[in-house]
Amino acid sequence: MDILLWNKILTPYEIAVREIVYKFDRLKSEYQMNGEYCPIEQVSGRVKSISSILDKLHRKEIPIDKMEKKLEDIAGIRIICQFVEDIDQIVEMIQNRSDMKVKTIKDYVKYQKSSGYRSFHIIITYKVETLDGVQKIPVEIQIRTMGMDFWATIEHSLQYKYKRDIPEHVKDRLTRAAEAVCALDSEMSAVRSEIMDAQLSSQLLHHQVAEILMAIENLYTVASKREIQKIQDEFYRVYEKKDMNALRKFHRQLDMISEGYRTQKMTDFGKDPRKYEVE
Ligand code: 0O2
Fold first, then answer.
1. 112, 165, 195 from 162: Cα distances, Å
2. What tens digit of pLDDT does each residue of 195-230 get?
C-alpha cells in the first residue's frame, strides 16, 4: 500500500468545508439584509479527524485505499434550523444550486433511525480548485432542527462513552427523549408563523434603529451640537414607544433634515466666487 500523506489528502476537504460554510453564511446575511426570514439558523463544518476516519474504515471493513471513494462524510457541513419546515426549504435551496451536485439523499426525518436519530442528509459533490487542478469532493450536509441537534449531540457523546454499546436503560431514556424532541418540533411548527412574525419584527426594529443612529451620526458633521442634542432626545422618546411606524416617520424626518443640509451646502458652494466647477 502507498504511504498516505494525510495532509495532502485532507487539504481539498478542508477547502470544500471552508468554502461551503462561507457560502451558507453569506446566504444567511442576504436574508437578513433583505429583512426576510432565514431558514438557516446556524452553519458549521468539519473535516473528520484521522482517528474517526480510521475507526469508520475499520467498522465498515473498507480498505484504506478505498477511503476516498467509499467515505462520503470526510467533509461534513451541519445546518441547524428552527422548524422542521425549514429543512425542506434548505434542501430545495441546495438542489437549485449550480455549485453543488446532489448525489444521495437520506431522509432520517421522515424515516427516523431505530436509535431515535432524526436528520436530513444530502451527499453532494463539490468542485475544489487546487494547485493540482480541479477535484470533485464528496460532502455530507446534515440538516436538522435545534431539537434534533440537541438529541444527536447527546446521543453521540454517549455512543463514544459506551463505545457504541449503550446500556438498555440509557437507550430507553434516549428513545423517550427522541419522542419528546419530535413533540417539541411539532408544537413549534404549530406556532411557526407567530414566531416568525415576532422574529422578523424584532429584526426590522434593530435594522431601523441602526439606520437612524447612522443618520444622526452623519449629521454630526453639519448640524449644530444643540440641534443634534434635540434630535437625539427626540429619538429616545420615539424609541421608547417601540412603534415601527413612529420610527419610520422619524427616520423620514431625519432624511429630510439631511437633505436640507445637502441642498444648503450646494447653494453655498454655488455662491462662493473662489470655487468653480471643473469640467
Ligand atoms: P461522526 O463521528 O458523527 O462522523 P451508511 O449509510 O451506513 O453507508 P454512514 O456514513 O454511517 O453510512 O451513514 P449514516 O448512517 O447516514 O451516518 C452518517 C452520519 O450521520 C454519522 O457519521 C453521524 O454523524 C450521523 N448519524 C447517523 N446515525 C446516527 C445516530 O444514530 N446517532 C447520532 N448521534 N448520529 C448519527 P459517523 O461517521 O457515524 O459519526
1. 22, 5, 39
2. 999 988 988 898 899 999 999 999 988 889 999 999
Cell numbers representing residue 197 in the block: 412574525
For the CA of 113, the closest atom of ligand 1 is: 31
99 secondary structure, DSSP code: S
Query: Is residue 152 lining ligand 1, measured as CB closer than 6 Å?
Result: yes
How far apart CA 139 and CA 152 sit, in angstroms, is 19
Residue 163 C-alpha cell reads as 463505545
CB of 73 shorter than 6 A to ligand 1? yes
Distance 50 CA to ligand 1 centre (A): 16
Q: How many whole angstroms separate alpha carbon 150 and alpha carbon 143? A: 13
- pLDDT per residue over 43-83, tens digit each? 999 999 999 999 999 999 999 999 999 999 999 999 999 99
Stated pTM of the model: 0.85
Alpha-carbon distance of 44 to 20, in angstroms, equals: 9
